[in-house]
């Protein structure tokens, strides 16, 4: 099978450094110096969270506003800017001093952007936090799917939640029904994600910070080889489990992102995806195989068109390879392993939708599909490796809603089916 990365004519998400940081491609206008490259200027080690004041004077998270073929920029010209470092005892470092937050404006000298704070000018990439910023899970009073609770994942700044992801989570056993976020294609360069800066902090540790979550069963205790093998053995037998389980060959249950970190351009935004309520146990061959291809196809289609998508990634069913279901906490049947993963994509402007469904464990035969597969008819790739990388099929919204009602909230999909417009 020709893999999607070849099908797109792209080798992964990272482009070469010679194209990624080509400043000659910066948007040209009179405020050129305040077009800040979100990879080059506000990445690196421990960057603060950037907010800008809207027309009503309210602080909002500052995201990319302009893009070129290979770069993405945040225009800070004539903006009131707030820099802050969420996290316990975290501070913004300003020279030899440390502050909770700082208001700033952008100035440009010879095309180079600086932030002016209390009359003093700072290079943007010199502004760092004392520690890596810490995202948080804010529990609402809103219920979902009967026994689920809506959580907002993001940052609390000046007594306001600035959330990037919404999840429907079952507190009792650590199961997340679905996560929802906005994938804004206009934030991404037209050909990829802009590459990676050499001194980025990299992936953070998966974590949880709200003490109301995972009471008595911290999830990091269960995503371990011995625990997973034991859980699988209890479901399918020791001999069968040992024949299929091999972490060195991607045969184990990974912490599978629901909202993918690569759907966000800013480093601090990506960190929000590493909260445990945004992951569920996912077979790594699938996670790094055809499910990853679904995420790449979605991202590149958004980038190619510049469209904004609501992406709702969900779980369906409880994996039961034989007569007993699989949970990582076998004693209490907590942290259940999903039977399937789903992804409902809604184009915000048109209400066009398509839904993907993927298996979450190797099987000898193709699964019984719960809806008519419309992938090929709408130019989405065919990804059907049931025995290894995952069997993926596409559903119309009507059939998805009928068969996977708990995997996503009801949304407006009245615009018809979303067609893949990316040409590679």
Textual characterization of the structure:
The chain is α+β, with helices and mostly antiparallel strands. Helix content is 14%, strand content 33%. It is built from eight helices and 25 strands. It has helices at 4-7, 17-20, 225-236, 238-244, 267-271, 284-287, 290-305, 397-403, and strands at residues 35-37, 49-53, 59-61, 66-67, 72-75, 81-84, 92-94, 97-99, 101-109, 112-117, 120-123, 128-129, 136-144, 148-157, 160-170, 175-184, 253-257, 279-283, 308-318, 327-329, 334-336, 338-347, 352-359, 384-385, 390-395. β7 and β8 (97-99) form a beta hairpin. α3 (225-236) crosses α4. The longest helix has 16 residues, at 290-305. The protein is globular, with a radius of gyration of 22 Å. The two termini are 18 Å apart.
Brief digest:
This protein has 424 residues and is α+β, with helices and mostly antiparallel strands. The protein is built from 8 helices and 25 strands. Keywords: Endonuclease, Hydrolase, Nuclease, Signal.
Write down the Rg. Answer: 22 Å
What ranges have pLDDT less than 50 throughout 5 or more consecutive residues? Answer: 1-24
The dominant shape is globular
Question: Which structural class should the secondary elements be placed in?
Answer: alpha+beta
Percentage of residues in helical conformation: 10-25%
What is the CA-CA span between the terminal residues?
18 Å
Query: Beta-sheet strand percentage?
Result: 25-35%
Strand order of the largest sheet: 13-14-15-16-19-22-23-25-24
Taking the sheet with the most strands, its summary is:
9 strands, antiparallel
Topology, number of strands: 25
Q: Total number of helical segments?
A: 8
User: What's the average pLDDT?
Assistant: 91
């Amino acid at each position: 099978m020709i893999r999607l990365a070849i099908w797109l004519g792209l080798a992964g998400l990272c482009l070469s450094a010679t194209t990624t940081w080509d400043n000659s491609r910066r948007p040209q206008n009179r405020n050129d110096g305040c077009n800040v490259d979100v990879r080059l200027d506000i990445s690196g080690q421990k960057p603060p969270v950037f907010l800008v004041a809207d027309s009503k004077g309210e602080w909002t998270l500052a995201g990319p506003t302009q893009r070129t073929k290979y770069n993405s920029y945040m225009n800070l010209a004539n903006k009131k800017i707030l820099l802050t470092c969420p996290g316990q005892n975290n501070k913004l470092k300003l020279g030899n001093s440390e502050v909770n937050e700082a208001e700033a404006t952008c100035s440009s000298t010879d095309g180079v952007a600086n932030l002016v704070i209390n009359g003093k000018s700072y290079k943007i990439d010199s502004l760092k936090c004392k520690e890596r910023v810490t995202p948080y899970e804010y529990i609402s009073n809103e219920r979902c799917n009967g026994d689920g609770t809506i959580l907002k994942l993001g940052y609390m700044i000046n007594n306001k939640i600035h959330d990037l992801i919404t999840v429907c989570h079952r507190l009792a056993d650590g199961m997340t029904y679905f996560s929802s976020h906005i994938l804004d294609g206009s934030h991404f360069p037209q050909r990829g994600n802009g590459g990676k800066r050499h001194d980025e902090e990299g992936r953070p540790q998966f974590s949880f910070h709200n003490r109301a979550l995972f009471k008595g069963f911290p999830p990091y205790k269960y995503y371990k080889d011995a625990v997973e093998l034991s859980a699988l053995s209890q479901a399918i037998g020791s001999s069968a489990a040992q024949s299929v389980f091999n972490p060195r060959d991607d045969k184990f249950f990974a912490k599978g992102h629901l909202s993918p970190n690569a759907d966000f351009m800013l480093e601090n935004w990506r960190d929000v995806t590493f909260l445990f309520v945004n992951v569920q146990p996912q077979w790594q061959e699938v996670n790094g195989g055809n499910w990853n291809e679904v995420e790449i196809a979605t991202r590149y289609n958004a980038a190619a068109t510049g469209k904004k998508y609501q992406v709702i990634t969900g779980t369906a069913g409880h994996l039961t390879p034989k007569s007993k279901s699989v949970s990582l906490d076998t004693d209490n049947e907590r942290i259940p392993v999903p039977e399937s993963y789903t992804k409902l994509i809604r184009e915000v402007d048109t209400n066009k939708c398509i839904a993907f469904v993927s298996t979450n464990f190797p099987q000898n035969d193709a699964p019984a599909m719960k809806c008519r597969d419309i992938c090929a008819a709408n130019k989405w790739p065919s990804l059907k490796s049931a025995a290894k990388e995952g069997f993926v099929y596409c559903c119309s919204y009507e059939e998805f809603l009928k068969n996977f009602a708990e995997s996503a909230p009801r949304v407006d999909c009245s615009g018809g089916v979303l067609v893949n417009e990316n040409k590679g």
